[in-house]
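Researcher: Go.
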Amino acid sequence: MRFAFSTLGVPGLPLGDVLRLATGHGYHGVELRAHPEEPVHPGLGLVERADVAAEFKAAGVDVLGIAGYARVAAPGDDEPVLDEVRSLVALARDVGAPFVRVFPGGGTGQSAADADATAARRLGAAAGYAADAGVRILLETHDSHRTAADAARVLGAVGHRRVGALWDVMHTLLGGEPVADSFAALSPYLGYVQVKDIASPHDTTPLALGTGTLPLAETVALLSAEGWDGWLCWEYEKRWYEAAAPLPPLLGPGRAYLSRLLGRSA
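Model: Structure:
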């Protein structure tokens, strides 16, 4: 398995500094939060995108994914959502990222069946564009589709190789789903895994890996036992929790912790 971290943990940090953190602490990749307040977002021009790709290549670090905020199950017209997804896919293509993250984002006034159908229809419509771009769209286990079973309902209906799953281990656990059940549901679709740690289901302030209550050891052991050798991406939600400790000093110990878990699993 390879290790990455999300720029959600270092909000607004210049790309050069992000890459120095990655190389200095032994991370193989970075997940880029695609938002206008960040250095990399869909508003970048072609020259700027080429510069991003060149910076990553020069540093020997992979752009793991573009973490977008399109909500594919949200009520309303399809076209604005599809436009947003296509813009994220184009950005991923241009900077060399294999994955684009989208959220479900179903509305409270929808039935589960309506939300599933809306998400599947939009993801199916975007799949061809993603295939042409050489990018895979990943539906994160989040909000209206917090569990793997929720996400799998949508992904099974889409039935396209360019549409898969991003497993956020916090959300599936908060949804009451055991780790083994989450992996079983997502394994046919799994793009990569987001790891993190929190104090409790009632306090989701981000913590250093291995210091909270999420079953990270169980998760890594299961992935290893199943022969899964993809990416583990640490999503430290500093942007949403200003009082949380800064991420940079935690990156080295976090990588060491994940390495120990892999060593034990082996």
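Model: The CA atoms of residues 36 and 43 lie 7 Å apart.
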